[in-house]
Amino acid sequence: MRRVAIVSYGMGNLRSVANAIDVLGATAVVIDRPAELQGVDAAILPGVGAFGEAMLRLNSAGWPEALHHHAFKAQRPFLGICLGMQLLAERGTEFGDHQGLGWFPGAVVRLDRPANVRVPHIGWNDVVAKRTDGLLATVAPSATCYFVHSFAFEPADESLISGVTEYGGHSFVSAVERDNVFGVQFHPEKSQKHGLAMIKRFLEV
Amino acid sequence: MLRTRLIPVLLLQNGMLVRSESFSIHQVVGNPIHEAKRFNEWNVDELIYLDISRDGSYDLRRDDHKVKNLSEPMQILEEVSKTCFMPLTWGGRIRSIDDMRLCLRNGADKVAINTGAFRSPQLIRDGANAFGAQAIVVCIDVRCTERGFEVFIDGGRESTGRDAASWAKEAVSHGAGEILLQSIDRDGVATGYDLDLIRAVAQVSSVPVIALGGVGRYENYAEAVKAGADAVAAANIFHFKELSDRNGKRAMAKAGLHVRTS
């Protein structure tokens, strides 16, 4: 049975991610300390909240090095959800300029939309797959997923992009991936069967 | 393209689901956990739970309903979240950041705050800073009085003299991610949403406005959206009509709205 670590750093709803893992037949382990990453098969970095506070919490507990080791040295599957995807960026601009984990080049910026388009972007929207393999393979060409966010990651390297979503006349990047590292702006754990299909895919990596 | 959300609202009173009329009449309609499971199977867009209990006394009749022995609303939330693979908002008697954190930890994706936010708008700000604006839903209960659209707090018991649109605008400025706008006058009377109220608040809100209160027919949903609501919510109609989600969505699609059907 696969053991999937869910990183607990005080940001957001871990329970729903754990529930999704459990219902798919794997074992979710909520971990509070970086050392607990040892011995898990995969890791998920969830999170709702502000970029700066999240990095502060990750840094103060020593998460960045441990997560980097997990994803790049041990090359185990890693999934960042919502804020967890944004944290992969080099920097974030929510409530000031903050340094991110820096795994993927690019910055997290506020959704810039006309005045009549509401931000945050909240609700169900289409994720259009940019590749046929990877996390979105079983839901391609597009999946309806649940979004709740005001900021989005703009990768400097286009080959990272695995999904895009149109909102208010412009598209933003809603999924990124490279090898064993995945990031999704939407909440797969809250996106009913489409979302569960992606998590299932992640568990099979 | 963003879909227009249709959101069932479940009212929880002392451990039981109730239907509400005019914020004063409450009848037990079911079991909080089974109902959530049913909505998940229906593949609804989202769920809002509002705990409208007056105090911490939880109902003893729950044993008759074959629910696990849940003595706390947070246990109900935790149990509900296990079968809820769509967004879940929890509200009721949230007065502090710690209350919010507890809800999020037990499986809520967002918290709805009302009286606590009105009495201390700083709560909105603190919540948005700690958990992100998108996790903070400010619920506004409104009654039509000689003052206009007046905000009421404490379960509709306390008048504030505050205009709904002005409070909504202030709440957004503090960091509210969504406004759940409820008409007390229309609660449980099934005569349709208060469209003037929706218009007044939607005009000044830069964040999504969820309309609640008054749905009697499925056609009412599109009326609210045309008046400016971003999402539509209802409570009683989901308990008393068959296939209420699917038929509601059908009516919305027929009216030209983009809805999620799969």
Features:
heterodimer; A: 205 residues; alpha/beta; Rossmann fold; 13 strands; 22% helix; B: 262 residues; TIM Barrel; eight-stranded parallel β-barrel; 12 strands; 34% helix
Can you characterise this structure?
The complex is a heterodimer of chains A (205) and B (262). Chain A is an alpha/beta fold and 205 residues long. Chain A has helices at 15-23, 51-60, 63-73, 83-86, 192-203, and strands at 3-7, 27-31, 42-45, 78-81, 91-92, 98-99, 106-110, 121-129, 142-149, 151-155, 161-167, 170-178, 181-184. In chain A, the strands form 2 sheets. Chain A has a 9-stranded mixed beta sheet with strand order 2-1-3-4-13-12-11-8-9, with helices on both faces. A 4-stranded mixed beta sheet of chain A has the order 6-5-7-10, covered by helices on one side. In chain A, a hairpin with a 2-residue loop joins strand 11 (161-167) and strand 12 (170-178). The longest helix of chain A is centred in the last third of the chain and has 12 residues, at 192-203. Chain B is of the alpha/beta class and 262 residues long. Chain B has one domain (5-254): Alpha-Beta Barrel (TIM Barrel), CATH 3.20.20.70. Chain B is built from 10 helices and 12 strands. Chain B has helices spanning 32-41, 73-82, 97-105, 115-119, 122-131, 164-174, 195-204, 219-226, 236-240, 244-254; strands spanning 5-13, 16-21, 25-30, 47-51, 88-91, 110-113, 136-145, 148-153, 158-163, 178-183, 209-212, 231-234. In chain B, helix 1 runs parallel beside helix 2 and helix 6 runs parallel beside helix 7 (195-204). Classes of the chains: A alpha/beta (205), B alpha/beta (262). Chain A binds chain B through residues 11-16, 19-20, 23, 48-50, 53, 83, 95, 118-126, 144, 146, 148-150, 166-167, 187, 189-193, 195-196, and chain B through 1-5, 40, 43, 45-46, 78, 81-82, 84-88, 104-110, 129-135, 177-178, 206-208, 230-231, 260, 262.
